[in-house]
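CO-FOLDING WORKSHEET

Operator: S.A.
Ligand of interest: magnesium ion
Run index: 127
Mode: holo prediction, single chain
Checklist:
[x] sequence pasted
[x] SMILES validated
[ ] output reviewed
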Amino acid sequence: MARILISDDSAFMRMVLRRILTEHGHEIVAEAATGKEAVKFYKQFQPDLVTMDVTMPEMSGIEAVKLIHEENCLARIIMVTAVGQKEIVKVALMEGASDFVVKPFEEEQLVRIIEKALERERVKSDD
Ligand SMILES: [Mg+2]
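OUTPUT RECEIVED:
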């Protein structure tokens, strides 16, 4: 079970992510609708993992990744991107994102990517 922050400006996508993740035993600590909120809630709730949309008002997901990574270089951030955002994904990974999933994704695919990121964190803290 992980404490997760969902970041997406689409209320529908937040609802989908919340449903899938809670059904798999995770706790949603907060939902951010802008990049700015994502950074604020990250600092406030210190989640184990963040799901990050790219295109959001006020501040993009890329900028938010950069600021969250500055706050905690071990932060686990999964980009949730649209088809055709390959270059943006590359930038996000350089800025500190852990992995990405492309919309529309299969439920199992999302869960697997999140479990993988959490596993990596566990391995790291056990060293
Ligand atoms: Mg968006």
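REVIEW:
The first strand starts at residue 3 and ends at 7.
The chain has a mean pLDDT of 94.
[x] output reviewed
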